[in-house]
Design brief:
Blueprint lengths: L9 E5 L4 H11 L3 E6 L27 H4 L5 E5 L5 H11 L4 E4 L13 H7 L4 E6 L14 H7 L24 H23 L5 E6 H8 L1 H10 L16 E5 L4 E5 L3 H10 L14 H6 L1 H12 L4 H10 L4 E3 L3 H6 L1 H6 L2 E6 L2 E7 L23 H9 L3 H9 L4
Length: about 400
């Protein structure tokens, strides 16, 4: 088995909360040595984002909650007060020997501490410096702070999410999880990997990467936003309706719900047969997909009545036999009990000081030659401070103790 793809790459991670830490975690999974910098005493803001928290063996309050745990495995936690001159010197010393410097401070904040791109590049010309912000490094909103939900609203995602205008509860709706943060994390990883490759083939040139949540959410609207760019019209909210083939959406059955997507005319004919209404396939109003899109409300209403005649299990079995894309509407318990999810190993276990068999979500990438097999627990606050500063910067015990007394680490 070969070494992991990013073995030998060292990353200094000054990001907090979710988008940046998720990206650094992805890179750590792939073999990068990630040093996570946290504030002494409080750490990453995510640690204070509320329960549930792991139970401390002694019953003491702690800062290892689910929000932090989801984005920080395979890293080393080092506490440094970057507001102090001594702390800034520690960061610069670590950056000299790093390939990547990641940060998600408000635009201009790190310049006050001598930790901005120009300052770090001056001591490490090949550094790949990645800034993750809400609005980017340029533009009138650049100085603003923001969180995922703000960008779901401002970027247009909420305007096309939610119940249809003529349904109860209609209006813009936020997607449940912090999806913009996750997508921004993916874009950040892509940018860093591309810059690492460019540095390798260009003779060692580093660069500054500017990734932001607003750009990401707009780009993610993809085909939905392209509709507006083509015809100038705002696409309507469609609830659970699909975005292409029709009929597509969630249908209630006698004991639950299922999701159906009929992607082409042949699938429509087979679906009508499964539902006991083969005549619908030859109805001129539903003959072609464009016809079914035009008459979407009518065909969806007909299908809704047909699905109410039997159970989710019955319909899924028959639809799957007919080769129709469909699936149950699972809650999280059903997700992790699903045989396909279990076969793919999406839940992994690691030993944590507070939990012998801590469950985590595995990296979604599967490699044939360099599989991700190690899932080291998200570190306790400052767990690796002594190890990193002594091994990489040569601090002795007396120096480390003095820095602790001063509140630097």
């Amino acid at each position: 088995m070969s070494a992991l793809p990013l073995s030998g790459i060292r990353i200094l991670d000054l990001t907090r909360v979710l988008a940046g830490p998720l990206s650094a975690q992805m890179l750590a999974d792939l073999g990068a040595d990630v040093i996570k910098i946290e504030r002494p005493g409080t750490g990453d803001d995510a640690r204070a984002f509320g329960p549930p928290y792991l139970k401390d063996p002694d019953g003491k309050a702690n800062n290892n909650n689910s929000f932090y745990l989801c984005a920080n495995r395979n890293k080393k936690s080092v506490t440094v007060n970057i507001a102090s001159a001594e702390g800034q010197e520690i960061i610069r010393a670590l950056a000299k020997d790093c390939d990547v410097f990641m940060e998600n401070y408000k635009v201009g904040d790190l310049k006050r501490y001598g930790l901005d791109y120009e300052a770090i590049r001056a001591i490490n010309g090949g550094i790949i410096y990645c800034s993750v912000t809400g609005f980017g490094q340029t533009g009138p909103y650049a100085p603003r702070a923001g969180y995922d939900a703000i960008f779901q609203a401002m970027g247009g995602l909420m305007s096309v999410t939610g119940h249809m205008d003529d349904e109860p509860g209609a209006g813009p709706m936020k997607v449940g999880p912090s999806i913009v943060d996750y997508m921004t994390g993916m874009n950040t990883s892509i940018g860093i990997l591309a810059a690492l490759y460019h540095r390798k083939v260009s003779g060692g040139a580093g660069q500054h990467i500017d990734v932001c949540l607003l750009d990401t959410v707009i780009a993610s609207l993809s085909h939905w936003l392209q509709i507006y760019l083509v015809n100038g019209k705002q696409p309507p909210r469609r609830g659970t309706w699909g975005n292409g083939g029709m009929p597509a959406g969630m249908f209630r059955c006698t004991d639950g719900e299922l999701m159906l997507v009929v992607g082409n005319d042949a699938q429509f004919t087979r679906t009508c047969a499964v539902l006991g209404a083969p005549e619908l396939a030859s109805d001129p109003k539903f003959l072609k997909n464009n016809d079914r899109v035009t008459n979407g409300k009518e065909i969806m209403a007909i299908f809704a009545g047909l699905f109410l005649k039997n159970t989710v299990g019955h319909w899924l079995e028959q639809l799957e036999k007919a080769g129709i894309p469909c699936g149950p509407v699972n809650d999280f318990a059903h997700v992790f009990a699903d045989p396909q999810v279990r076969a793919r190993g999406m839940e992994v276990k690691t030993a944590h000081p507070f939990e012998q068999h801590l469950s985590l979500i595995r990296n979604a990438l599967t490699f044939s030659e360099t599989p991700v097999t190690e899932y080291r627990y998200p570190p306790l606050l400052g767990e690796h401070t002594t190890e990193v500063l002594s091994s990489k910067l040569g601090y002795d015990a007396a120096e480390l103790d003095a820095l602790k007394q001063q509140g630097v680490i």
